[in-house]
Design a protein that fits this description.
Elements (H helix, E strand, L loop, with lengths): L1 E6 L3 E7 L4 E4 L4 E4 L10 E7 L1 H11 L4 E4 L1 E3 L2 H13 L1 E2 L4 E3 L5 E6 L5 E6 L17 E6 L10 H10 L3 E4 L3 H15 L4 E5 H7 L5 H11 L3 E5 L5 E5 L2 E5 L12 H14 L4 H15 L20 E5 L4
Parallel strand pairs: 1-6, 1-12, 2-10, 6-8, 7-9, 12-13, 13-14, 14-15
Antiparallel strand pairs: 2-5, 3-4, 10-11, 15-16, 16-17, 17-18
Helix pairs in contact: 1-7, 4-5, 7-8
Length: 320
């Protein structure tokens, strides 16, 4: 029996630090400008394992939970790198699928002033199929991260399996699920206990420009809890009859890779430990704030609850 089984991606993340790039302002967004037709000198290279399945699993493992991760990788050197790193964290790889194609990887270009751009190659992740999964695991929770390519099509059957086996479900949807919009996802979401996304994703998925309206809609679609994270502005959470408004821990951010995984996995870990919702929000925020202070998605993962209290407001809401 596992405490949590995670489902999502497993990647190798390579951070490339260069002085030959700069931030350029544009309309509505900023761009990392890199000269073309020349060699770009790389000052430093850092390599990590990443991906939603292994990132979330690492949080649970740090808190002493029994964990397995489900993801599809290639039978290659990058795949071996990911498996070896999972073993260092004590994450079971018995449900990892090795198939044709390459292990997913990301190249992260980091400019001299710290701005980053990710180049993501989904590889074998895009082709995960239902018949490749061993749906025989026993677990208290199933944590589902973004599923790339055609892999998202396994989601209804996996959540059905969780429902039939009394497994709680936490979902951090990816682009494919977000593109389907809330109405089309409702048949799946009714069996999800906790859903989490950032404010931009919520506006895209639900459709309102107002975060609270989006939160309420999400809360009505799932069994228990909806979360919208808002970066340095903190987070808002709807749980049963209460809306929580939380500040964020004030830290200097150098990295954004893995922050969403860190928040939700910290939150769910607190639920497993039978903590209050305010404690779950605090741990999620604390974990995410630590991850963004380090390069890579795992180096900053915490292994204890914070001593510092997070300012959280609560108001009642009647979920109809």
């Amino acid at each position: 029996m596992f405490d949590v089984v995670t489902l999502g991606s497993a990647t190798k993340d390579i951070f490339l630090f260069t002085k030959d790039s700069s931030l350029k302002p544009g309309i509505n967004k900023h761009f990392l400008e890199i000269p073309f037709d020349k060699k770009i000198e790389v000052e430093k290279v850092l390599e990590f394992s990443g991906g939603s399945a292994t990132n979330a699993a690492a949080t649970f493992a740090r808190f002493g939970k029994k964990i397995a991760a489900i993801a599809k990788i290639g039978n290659d050197a990058n795949g071996n790198f990911v498996i070896n790193d999972m073993q260092k964290f004590g994450i079971s790889s018995e449900y990892v699928v090795k198939g044709e194609g390459e292990t997913p990887f990301s190249n992260v270009v980091v400019s001299e002033n710290g701005h980053m751009v990710l180049f993501v190659y989904r590889g074998a992740e895009k082709t995960l199929k239902l018949d490749e999964l061993k749906l025989d695991f026993k677990s208290k929770w199933l944590y589902v991260g973004p599923l790339g390519g055609e892999s998202y099509k396994v989601l209804p059957d996996v959540i059905k399996y969780a429902k039939e086996n009394g497994i709680h479900v936490a979902l951090n949807p990816g682009s494919n699920e977000l593109n389907l919009k809330l109405k089309k996802m409702e048949p799946v979401l009714k069996d999800v206990d906790v859903i989490s996304m950032n404010d931009e994703e919520a506006r895209r998925f639900v459709g309102y420009g107002n975060d609270i309206k989006n939160l309420i809609k999400l809360g009505k679609a799932v069994k228990s809890t909806a979360i919208i994270t808002r970066g340095e502005k903190g987070s808002i959470v709807l749980n049963e009859k209460n809306i929580y408004r939380a500040e964020a821990f004030n830290v200097k951010q150098i990295n954004f890779v893995g922050a969403g995984d860190a928040f939700l996995s910290g939150f769910v870990n607190a639920l497993i430990d039978e903590k209050e919702i305010s404690d779950a929000i605090t741990l999620g925020s604390y974990n995410a704030s630590s991850v963004v202070k380090h390069y890579g998605a795992k180096d900053g993962i915490v292994n204890e609850y914070p001593k510092q209290k997070l300012k959280i407001g609560r108001s009642e809401y009647e979920k109809k």
